[in-house]
Design goal:
The chain is α/β, with parallel strands linked by helices. Helices cover 39% and strands 24% of the residues.
Length: 142
């Protein structure tokens, strides 16, 4: 199941953005994975917000905030086209949550981590990608 983690310097998001960005990013991830929009799949799309304390993030050039989006999905869940769409939409989502313009896009990095089949477990059992696909097909037809 997909997971998404946004790491930001404390105070880098707007108040409204801080309140919505986690669910917004989880929705972006589910759309690009092609998961059905069901309560089950929404409940499995975990989103984390990690806020770094003041001074914990910098660049060699300046102290402007940078944003790191880390996405973990089963290997094979995202084609190259879907990865590109995910990166583009996640970047827009983070920029919006921070009140920044598209000119600031280079300050948002998205890393896609593909978890090899057989190395993902939930509920005490190994979860296989083929099982998730079958479940998604079953829920999409419901």
């Amino acid at each position: 199941m997909p997971m998404i983690r946004l790491t930001v310097p404390s105070g880098a998001l707007t108040e409204e953005g801080r309140g919505t960005v986690q669910r917004d990013l989880a929705g972006v991830l589910l759309r690009w994975e092609g998961a059905p929009d069901t309560a089950f799949f929404r409940a499995q799309a975990w989103s984390y917000l990690v806020e770094l304390p003041a001074g914990a993030q910098t660049a060699a050039e300046d102290d402007a905030p940078r944003f790191l989006v880390e996405v973990t999905v089963p290997q094979g869940a995202l084609s190259e086209r879907r990865k590109a769409g995910l990166v583009e939409e996640a970047t827009r989502t983070v920029l919006g949550a921070a009140g920044l313009t598209p000119d600031h896009a280079p300050r948002v990095w998205v890393l896609v981590h593909e978890q090899a089949d057989g190395t993902w477990g939930a509920g005490g059992s190994v979860v296989r990608y083929a099982d998730l696909v079958a479940l998604a097909k079953g829920q999409a037809g419901a």
